[in-house]
Amino acid sequence: MNTRANARPFQLAVLLLAVASYPVAADEMPAAGKIERGKYLVTTSGCNDCHTPWKMGDFGPEPDMERLLSGHPESVVLPAPPALPKGPWVVVASDTNTAWYGPWGTSFTANLTPDEETGLGKWTLRTFTDTIRTGRHEGRGRLILPPMPIPMYKHFTDADLEAIFTYLQSIPPIRNRVPAPVVQEEAPPAD
Q: Fewer CB within 10 A of the terminal residue: the chain, N end or C end?
């Protein structure tokens, strides 16, 4: 038995696996690869946890995937937030998990779909990257408020951000105008 000849298919398989798993810069990756990589990053980074409205399912709250990444539903008008007690509780969230109230005020998760009027449809990769890097809307406007994890997301590589943006531009656009955040100007009244 020629063990050297038998080893060749195994060596070739290891070589092909190594080449296939080698990191590729986003500009070298085919568009389909960027979309798949972006989908993976969006899914594993928890973007759906807040940007996809929740609905009540058979086993409790779950993301409403028919409204994938469309942000706080414009049809859900919320009353004034409840007064937070003194102590360790500092935040409340809406039942859709798309509106949050805390010491910063009230934030509503953005529409990340490529709708040109209400989402990211007119954004460029540069606008998206600048937003994540600076923590400011469109890279220069108002601060992106909690619970958006900008302190962590700003560490994505340029290739990761390009893949995320490419994926977001590939999903169905959903027309959904999200309310502007309400910034807390002063400390809320104490009970």
A: N
The residue whose two tokens read 């490419």 is: 166
Which domain range does residue 152 map to? 32-73+90-182
Predicted local confidence at residue 5, as pLDDT:
53
For residue 176, pLDDT over 80 is answered with yes
Task: Please check whether residue 81 lies inside any domain of the structure.
Answer: no
Could you tell me if 130 and 142 are in contact, meaning their C-beta atoms sit under 8 angstroms apart? no
The SS3 call for residue 51 is helix
CA dist 84 → 50, 96, 101, 148 (Å): 21, 19, 9, 20
Q: Please check the confidence at residue 191 and state whether its pLDDT lies above 90.
A: no
Q: Within a domain: residue 149?
A: yes
Residues 6+ apart with CB under 8 A from 112: 47, 51, 69, 70, 71, 119, 120, 168
User: What is the three-class DSSP state of 93?
Assistant: strand
pTM: 0.80
Query: What are the tens digits of pLDDT across the range 62-82?
Result: 999 999 999 999 999 999 998
